[in-house]
């Protein structure tokens, strides 16, 4: 008889680190016995879900005995119209996270390399690792700015994918359109995954969401999500836009019913909810400026953001400050996971949440005032 612990897992599992999500509100409430807990840790929409999406879900509940549409036809058509591409250029997935896994499964052989700017979103590494591929991390420049030359230098014959997250999570910085064009001009037979999860928050003139490069016929897949500005992270829905060939390859590894009915219906409604998107964008700008002003008042260095979160350097007591915030009911992300032990990443919240966060942080930093 074999003991279950003798059954060998694939070797590549040894290098996979468990994902560390922002703690859920209920857990912190229960652990610390707090009434009021606010989450500023996962870059969710503080205004709530798109009301149109909620209504659409409510109206569809009676049909849940049916399997979802395996082609997500209505939703893909809506996305295609919104972005001015053909429906065949769109793939929908169970969150953009699933798309990263599917891209990895479709393109990475064991021993292939991916290039990832560092620090960035951990799912890229995860996708590579499950395929036994190798992650090459390329640090950002000073101020977490993209360095295209360093990315180009990291390319080898084994490089299959380059990830560009813009605005980048966790830094909030972005790659300028011109720099993106320069990168693409130098590449041969390498897929670029352009992660625009926060693109709707960026309004800088030289920002690109990657779509124009897809339109040019470049080997780029623009990755998008409904979890951030659209506010429906809970139903899990993301999508990708690329050439028909690239999408066809990825569809080969997709499970038929990867996007559930409620997600399809919610996203189809959310994409038309310009009112909610505009309100979310404006609230984010206002909250951002409030937080900037107060970080300056507190003498804290922060990285200017094009997204809905801010990376702020709270100093050598970073971990303690993170813990003290938590003890007072404010969940943020501690930067140690990204090799930034002096930083925290805070999601821009509602006016009330931002004020509570700043008041609490002020108290922690200046206990006598
Ligand atoms: C949140 C996020 C995603 C997508 O998340 P899903 O909820 O899986 O759609 C993708 N990339 C980055 C950088 C993100 O922060």
UniProtKB/TrEMBL annotation:
Catalytic activity: L-histidinol phosphate + 2-oxoglutarate = 3-(imidazol-4-yl)-2-oxopropyl phosphate + L-glutamate
One GO MF term attached to the UniProt entry: pyridoxal phosphate binding
Oligomer status and interactors: Homodimer.
Location of the Aminotransferase class I/classII large domain: 36-360
N6-(pyridoxal phosphate)lysine carried by residues: 228
Co-factor(s): pyridoxal 5'-phosphate
Protein name: Histidinol-phosphate aminotransferase
Organism this protein belongs to: Planococcus halotolerans
CDD domains listed in its UniProt record: AAT_like (cd00609)
Gene: hisC
Keywords (A to Z) from UniProt: Amino-acid biosynthesis, Aminotransferase, Histidine biosynthesis, Pyridoxal phosphate, Transferase
The keyword Amino-acid biosynthesis appears for this protein: yes
Pathway: Amino-acid biosynthesis; L-histidine biosynthesis; L-histidine from 5-phospho-alpha-D-ribose 1-diphosphate: step 7/9
């Amino acid at each position: 008889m074999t003991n279950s612990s003798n059954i060998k897992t694939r070797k590549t599992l040894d290098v996979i680190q468990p994902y560390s999500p922002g703690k859920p509100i209920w857990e912190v409430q229960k652990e610390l016995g707090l009434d009021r807990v606010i989450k500023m840790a996962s870059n969710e929409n503080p205004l709530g879900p798109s009301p149109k999406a909620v209504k659409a879900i409510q109206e569809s509940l009676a049909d849940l005995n049916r399997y979802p549409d395996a082609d997500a036809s209505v939703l893909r058509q809506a996305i295609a119209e919104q972005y001015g591409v053909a429906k065949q250029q769109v793939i929908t997935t169970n969150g953009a996270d699933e798309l990263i896994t599917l891209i990895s499964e479709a393109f990475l052989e064991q021993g292939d390399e991916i290039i990832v700017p560092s620090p960035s979103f951990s799912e890229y590494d995860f996708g590579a690792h499950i395929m036994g591929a190798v992650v090459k991390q390329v640090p950002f420049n000073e101020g977490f700015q993209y360095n295209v030359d360093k990315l180009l230098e990291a390319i080898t014959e084994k490089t299959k994918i380059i990830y560009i997250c813009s605005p980048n999570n966790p830094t909030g910085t972005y790659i300028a359109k011109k720099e993106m064009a320069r990168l693409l001009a130098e590449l041969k037979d390498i897929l670029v995954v352009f992660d625009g999860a926060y693109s709707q928050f960026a309004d800088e003139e030289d920002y690109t969401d990657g779509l124009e490069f897809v339109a040019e016929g470049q080997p780029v897949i623009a990755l998008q999500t409904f979890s951030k500005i659209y506010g429906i992270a809970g139903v899990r829905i993301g999508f990708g836009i690329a050439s028909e060939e690239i999408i066809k390859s990825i569809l080969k590894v997709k499970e038929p019913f990867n996007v559930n009915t409620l997600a399809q219906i919610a996203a189809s409604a959310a994409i038309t909810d310009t009112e909610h998107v505009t309100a979310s964008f404006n609230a984010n700008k206002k909250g951002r400026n409030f937080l900037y002003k107060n970080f300056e008042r507190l003498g804290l260095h922060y990285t200017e953001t094009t997204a809905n979160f801010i990376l702020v350097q709270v100093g050598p007591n970073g971990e303690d400050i993170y813990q003290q915030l938590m003890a007072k009911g404010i969940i943020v992300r501690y930067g140690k996971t990204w090799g930034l032990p002096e930083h925290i990443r805070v999601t821009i919240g509602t006016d009330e949440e931002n004020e509570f966060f700043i008041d609490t942080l002020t108290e922690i930093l200046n206990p006598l005032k």
